[in-house]
Amino acid sequence: MVFSLIHTNLHGQESSGPASPTNLSASDHPWDHGEKIDIQWDDIEKNEQDKVQSYSIYSSRSANPDSFIFVVTIDADISAYTIDKLDRKYSYYFKIIAIDKSGNVSEPAVTLSAISPTRQWFDGRRFPLFIITVIFCGSVVYWIYRARAGIPLQIRKIAGLEAVDEAVGRATEMGRSILFIPGIQDMNEIQTIAGITVLSHVAKVAAEYDAKVEVPTSRSLVMTAARETVQASFLTAGRPESYNQDLVYYVTDEQFGYVAYVQGMMVREKPAACFYMGAFFAE
């Protein structure tokens, strides 16, 4: 009898597990790519809050109690959580368990029905990009409207282009030629394309000043592009008769052979203005 009383007394002193979370529900996360679900539950009673230390959340694609997989453990002061990295092709059940400071667990709370994440038409995570796009496109449309309305637009001058005009003018005054080197790479290089673009402006100014522009190239395709560019510039300037395609010519693909030719020509003819616009390496 004494043993029975002692056993009963010890059993009465054992602490019971924490209260189970109530009203567990799941809903699709708004404005996402279809990979998140929000779950929430009611806070436990005040007299039970001191017992609970954390919550453990589980997920499953079926209602089978043995199929739930652990997701995360969160603090006890949280009553909502967003579960990510889900597949919108499947539906999910969720389960939450309260854990006290002694490691005892409550009865699990399980969602009544399965839910699947849904992909929205707009991803909220990219809202800042949307704002930037609207501002950029709105600015472009606004300035186009101002330009079409005839309102003067202030554009900052590029000092390098002004220096080009000055160099061509000095070459004209000295009566010497202008040398333009578009680099040693082919037309598939963006630096060569940029150089040909600058050549168009140089040739146009030279045509207006009736100056001679000489363009030795190290690639045949660059020669063809340079000839068409110079011819178009002379035509734009209203001096098509001054264009001479023999001044835009091919030298050699050999790197230092090309360099030796250009160097010798510079020593002999002493051009008044030399432009180097393109890709260069050890030259």
List key phrases describing it.
Immunoglobulin-like; 3 domains; single chain; 283 residues; 7 helices; alpha/beta; 37% helix; four-stranded parallel β-sheet; disordered N terminus; four-stranded antiparallel β-sheet
Give a structural overview.
The chain is built from 7 helices and 11 strands. With 283 residues, the chain is of the alpha/beta class. The strands form 3 sheets. The protein has a 4-stranded antiparallel beta sheet with strand order 4-3-6-7, with no helix packed on it. A 4-stranded parallel beta sheet has the order 10-9-8-11, with helices on both faces. β1 and β2 form a beta hairpin. 37% of the residues lie in helices and 21% in strands. It has helices spanning 2-13, 46-49, 127-148, 159-174, 190-209, 220-236, 255-269; strands at 22-28, 37-42, 52-60, 69-75, 80-83, 93-100, 109-110, 178-181, 213-217, 248-250, 273-276.
How far apart are the termini? 108 Å
- Nearest-integer average pLDDT: 88
Could you tell me the radius of gyration in angstroms? 39 Å
- Helix percentage range: 25-40%
Output the strand order for the largest sheet.
Answer: 4-3-6-7
Query: Can you tell me the overall shape?
Result: elongated
Quick structural overview:
Helix 4 packs across helix 5 and helix 5 runs parallel beside helix 6. The protein has seven helices and eleven strands. The chain is 37% helix and 21% strand.
